[in-house]
User: What shape does this take?
Amino acid sequence: MKELIDAIVAMDEEKAIALTDHMIDDNIDPMKILDAYRDAMAEVGRRFEEGKFFIPELILSGEMLNAASEKIKPLLTAANKSSKKKGKVIIGTVAGDIHDIGKDIVTLMLDINGYEVLDLGIDVPVAKFVEAAKDFNPQVIGMSGFLTMAYDPMKNTVAALVEAGVREEIKIMIGGGQMDNQIRDYVGADAFGKDAIEAVKLCDQWIK
Amino acid sequence: MSQSSENEKCFKEREKRVMDVVALKKSDRVPLATISDFYFATSQGVNCREAMYDYDKMAAAWKTTAKELDLDMTGQLFSIMSGKVMDIMGIKGFSWPGAADPAQRLPDHLQYQYHEKDLIQADEIDDFLKDPSDFTIRKLMPRMSETIGPLAMVPVGINALSIPYTMIMGVPMMAALLGDIGSKLKQAGEEHLIWQASQDKLIADLKEMGYPTVHNVTGQCAFDWVADNLRGLKGSMLDMYRQPDKLMALVDLFEPQMVEMTLMMAEMSDIKRVFIPLHKGAGGFMNDAQFKKFYWPSLKRYFLALIDHGLTPEPFYEGDYTPRLEYLAELPPGKIMGHYDKIDRKKHKEIMSGIACFWGDVPGSLLVSGTPEKVKDYVKALIDDFADGGLIVDGSANGLPLESKKENVMALIETVREYGKS
Ligand code: B12
Assistant: This one.
């Protein structure tokens, strides 16, 4: 397992794939393989925080993980599949904004860090956030926005959550290109996160 | 003095105020130069759809804003693309206000947006490199435009049409496949000329009013050309690991073309400043070794080639360029008019003083959601940081974002006028 973890962290995709295939052939417990990927991703996240890894490494390790999950998922038993999640998070790019790359990276990072994520997609109308908040019962809502135009839709979304009476029990984080703490205050969110790793840290802080 | 000679004098003064700072000379006051675009329309109540579809309305608003702001250099006009041309061309990959296709239409108050993707897919790079022009014509152009989509039906490489006999049979056969695209292209060409004329006239009118335009030519460095447009963020970042040689081959292919294209466009304009928005080399997008290998060499050569031809590069260092400052310090002093977005100003002073001025960097968040007092404090601190010269002030979200509050913009300007005197 250490070899697999090292290969992933070294961004050696070929080796990671070969080792994974080998383990599957050898009937190694699929959960153990997935755990190795999770451990590797945790290390990738650490290096990202330390400023040693950047977007390319997040994207590539995400790809490696996705490819492995595709192979491993069919092998998992029902019990394995419903493994305990840390908490529930809703993610979406706010109304009027059609950008998805940043949001997708955040979704991926939350997912591998054990959160059940409901991704509402892009250009998400205020009402859809509210509806999802009621149905899905998340502890956290993450709003993504790429441009300055996203400020007001974010503000409106928070206001609508207040109106619907669900704001109190939910933490709200925002992120994306033009967001900062000034905008956190402007829209009435609880936190701004500058990257996907911070999104995970915020959730970890909030959901203990 | 007559109004027109008064205006001419103002024009020269303004131009000099900015260019002196670029050349690292003292100026009488900290200059104000902006790369904003839609703000010039929307601050007069002209929405983004109108700005893209009604050229006269847009020009009138732009002139009113130019007077109201009274800057040393006014904004970036070519960003206000023609919605009509985009409709006629059946442009794909963008959404914009007023788009004829409802699936691509944004509300009137929003600026156009781009859907980033890999126009050239990961396994197509070899095909592209083998014959870039053919791949462009038969694969990429149809992917970018509905109108010239039929080019995808041409069954052989374009160089199969390289002898006289193909003019008799091959080309007409192709024409039959292409159907109506000729008349659509004619229409696009005519509309483009109308749009272009309106832009040229606006620049001339502004000059007559005494206002220099910040730039009228834009270029890209080879890596961004490839990464933004052809391979996309995900594609290009993965290529650095999965197929670095092919990525490099794409960058190498486009490097000379970037220079050639920029010089050609600069030749046609009397504004000798070239805007170069920089994207995927910023901190966070790659590590130092990757920057040094994939990004910097061709960018540096691009800068030097433009400077060699008497042009002033106006790179927009989008994102956080702090980790790249050591590289920027390799550039010749007093030749670059660099616009900054998010940067450690102390480090900039440390590394760049005596090499390049600082142009920036009032955050968009502050201009949109802050107060005049907060803006004033920010600008004062900015002026203090660069008190010994070398500063040009603008917003950092492509200049002033269109959502900016007018009172915040005015606070920015007034603070510079008041505190920025030498
Ligand atoms: C690459 C780029 C482009 C590319 C591709 C854009 C695209 N559609 O994807 C191209 C060249 C096409 C382009 C075009 C334009 N761009 Co542009 N572009 C950029 C650039 C350099 C990087 C964006 C990027 O890819 N980031 C990478 C992704 C992964 O980051 P991200 O989305 O922010 O997500 C990360 C974090 O923010 C965070 N995160 C994201 N969501 C969330 C959510 C939560 C809850 C949390 C906690 C965290 C989080 O995690 C992610 C991963 O770590 C930025 C400047 C910059 N460095 O940010 C300008 C920038 C976004 N562009 C800008 C502009 C103005 C434009 C244009 C309008 C220019 C023009 N006049 O034509 C056009 C069209 C607008 C558009 N983007 O659609 C401005 C926007 C200013 C504004 N008013 O908002 C920016 C900010 C540059 C600037 N400083 O002025 N652009």
